[in-house]
Amino acid sequence: MRYLPKSPADREQMVREIGIRSIDDLFAPIPAEYRLNRDLKVPRQMAESEIIDYFRQRAETNAAGYAVFLGAGAYHHYRPVIIDSLISRGEFLTAYTPYQAEISQGTLQAIFEFQTMISELTGMEVANASMYDGSTGAAEAIMMAVRITGRKSALVARSVHPEYREVMHTYSQHQGLPIAEFNFLENGRVDMRDLEKKISADTACVLIQSPNFFGTIEDVTAVADLVHSKGALLVVSIAEALSLGIVKPPSEADIVSMESQSFGVPLGFGGPYAGVLATKEKFVRQIPGRLVGETKDKNGKRGFVLTLSTREQHIRREKATSNICTNQALIATMATIYMTVYGREGLKELAKQNLAKAAYAAGQFGRKSKILFEGAPRFNEFVVQTEKDPHEANNRLLEKKVIGGFPLKRFYPELGNAAVWCCTELNTKEQIDAAVQAVGQ
């Protein structure tokens, strides 16, 4: 939508039309002590040439050419140039919902393709048009499980991303929904005995992450068998979407929530990203957000529409499955283009490269430091425990233009001087060797 500035005459006419003397009358209900009786302290206006020069100077301070070994939920993958070229087209370049199907067929089809690809990747039967991100998607999955089962509590593994868990508690704290946590073993996988001890007849769902925050791939089948034997649902959260290029999809789960940032979405200080929620068709009425469906128009031609939108703006608020507003359609389109460009074999090859480089790096680090959580498969992340605080090593690495691993002490004090390291297709052998040498100093 274009911004159309109003002239003084336009404003005067608008004021007369609504029956007020001045624009200040609109703010009359606000007590005087809460009004700002001065001009805002904002910089002066700039000419276009000045603005370009200003941002050029700011851009010169950007850090470029760094080797990145930081993952922990946000991953440094290569982004094909075609992604930005396509999403910049006027037909796609909006975050807003395509309510008018007649003029939004391209956007609706892109979302439909996104849903289809996500369903195939996750082994689920249906996926929605996207969530805000992986953390809110996981929280929404718990709410969904509560609606399906009628039970009033949830269990979450401590090996789930700590900030995902914080979001879950934020969602649940005012809904009378207690969320308890269960532990992990020395190999990084969930503690099945602890889970079995804590699961009860009031547990709506058990949520695990695979690969988990330590990079360990969980035994989803074993967890699913235990959870289902207790009448609860299994939710699997995935922070590293690229793992599905090589890891068996969690088809035993009832709900899969995922962060799609790895699929062509740039690292932007935490967002915007796009979450995913996929499930079995029998639960489709409880899925949050929207679903785009395929249909035929009156002439029998293939078309796409918003099939299901059980949110508070479309139905009675008390019957809505979620208060999610505009979904992340533009970011989901990035992921759709990424998956289309690479295809099934391309994603598999990328995943193999991530796996191989992480295995090599873990082996090299293991010569001078301790690798935690050995004995279980992992994808592109691993945990290195050192004698010194990993923050010190990271400071040394920054001087060498290397961004090191994520220190774990803040969230897992029992692990001591440990950090999660990540390797992607963008990390070279030379970068890995240099990082190992710097950490070992």
Structural account:
This protein has 441 residues and is of the alpha/beta class. It folds into two domains: 108 residues, Aspartate Aminotransferase, domain 1, CATH 3.90.1150.10; 257 residues, 3-Layer(aba) Sandwich (Aspartate Aminotransferase, domain 2). The protein is built from eleven helices and 15 strands. A seven-stranded mixed β-sheet has the order 2-8-7-6-5-3-4, with helices on both faces. Strands 11-12-15-14 form a four-stranded antiparallel β-sheet, with helices on one face. It has a two-stranded parallel sheet with strand order 1-13. A hairpin with a 5-residue loop joins strand 9 and strand 10. The longest helix has 37 residues.
What Rg is obtained from the alpha carbons, in whole angstroms? 25 Å
Which CATH top level class of the largest domain fits? Answer: Alpha Beta
Number of domains: 2
Distance between the termini: 57 Å
Low-pLDDT stretches = none
Following the backbone from N to C, one meets helices and strands in this order, namely HHEHHEHEHEHEHEEEEEHEEHEEEH
Structural class: alpha/beta
Q: State the CATH superfamily name of the largest domain.
A: Type I PLP-dependent aspartate aminotransferase-like (Major domain)
Question: Which helices and strands occur, and which strands form pairs?
Answer:
Elements: H1 8-17, H2 48-59, E1 67-68, H3 82-87, H4 105-122, E2 126-127, H5 134-149, E3 153-157, H6 162-172, E4 179-182, H7 192-198, E5 203-209, H8 220-229, E6 233-238, E7 255-259, E8 275-279, E9 290-296, E10 302-309, H9 329-365, E11 370-372, E12 381-385, H10 390-399, E13 402-403, E14 406-407, E15 418-422, H11 429-439
Parallel strand pairs: 1-13, 3-4, 3-5, 5-6, 6-7
Antiparallel strand pairs: 2-8, 7-8, 9-10, 11-12, 12-15, 14-15
Helix pairs in contact: 4-9, 5-6, 9-11
